[in-house]
Amino acid sequence: EDQVTQSPEALRLQEGESSSLNCSYTVSGLRGLFWYRQDPGKGPEFLFTLYSAGEEKEKERLKATLTKKESFLHITAPKPEDSATYLCAVQAKAGNNRKLIWGLGTSLAVNP
Amino acid sequence: GAVVSQHPSRVICKSGTSVKIECRSLDFQATTMFWYRQFPKQSLMLMATSNEGSKATYEQGVEKDKFLINHASLTLSTLTVTSAHPEDSSFYICSARGPAHNSPLHFGNGTRLTVT
């Protein structure tokens, strides 16, 4: 069964304290892995798409990496404004099924 | 680019009434839009796929007569929660895939529905 598991469930960091969020997945052929950021009471905001193992993408303090089993979202020297829930989703290659499978997210709090 | 606008952002209604939520793609055309529901501490749950000019495709367990979806144009999909009950209170979010090849889903800002 296709599945996405994110860890930790919640993470509290001090400003400037780098860390990583994990997204483990099992899927019958990966079409793409997606990272989103969601602020309270808002819709998810797209961050990255990764398609194949070894791929990396960066945006400001965020860097996403992908292996055949998991993805990491590395946050370097975070700031309080990076506080949000980070969601991971995968899309399988199975036929025309474009439905995303979502993790529960990691709630990140960055203290000043 | 690829901006999705959703309205209203929050609505409070009485039990038994119907509520309509609009989802618009502002700078691109979307033949397909997706409606999600999100409960606290739970992952996004796909409710239905809205197809322009044809019937929506509902996920298993989602009542199509309760959640009416209309996608009458390439930039507008609506979700109507009919005869709402307190258990329908939730955060509803629409999304659409951007126009570029392999474009990801872009989401609206959601609608917080509270049924009293």
Question: What would your notes on this structure say?
Answer:
With 112 residues, chain A is mainly beta. In chain A, 0% of the residues lie in helices and 59% in strands. Chain A has strands at 3-7, 10-14, 19-26, 30-38, 45-50, 56-59, 62-66, 70-75, 84-92, 100-102, 106-111. In chain A, strands 2, 4, 5, 9, 10 and 11 form a six-stranded mixed sheet that branches. Chain A is globular, with a radius of gyration of 14 Å. The model of chain A has no long low-confidence stretch (mean pLDDT 94). Chain B is 0% helix and 52% strand. Chain B has strands at 4-7, 10-13, 19-25, 32-38, 45-51, 57-58, 67-73, 76-81, 90-97, 105-107, 111-115. In chain B, strand 4 (32-38) and strand 5 (45-51) form a beta hairpin. In chain B, the strands form two sheets. In chain B, strands 2, 4, 5, 6, 9, 10 and 11 form a seven-stranded mixed sheet that branches. In chain B, strands 1-3-8-7 form a four-stranded antiparallel sheet, with no helix packed on it. Chain B starts with a strand and ends with a strand. Chain B is globular, with a radius of gyration of 13 Å.
List the main descriptive attributes of the protein structure presented here.
heterodimer, A: 112 residues, mainly beta, 6-stranded mixed sheet, 5-stranded antiparallel sheet, globular, B: 116 residues, 7-stranded mixed sheet, 4-stranded antiparallel sheet
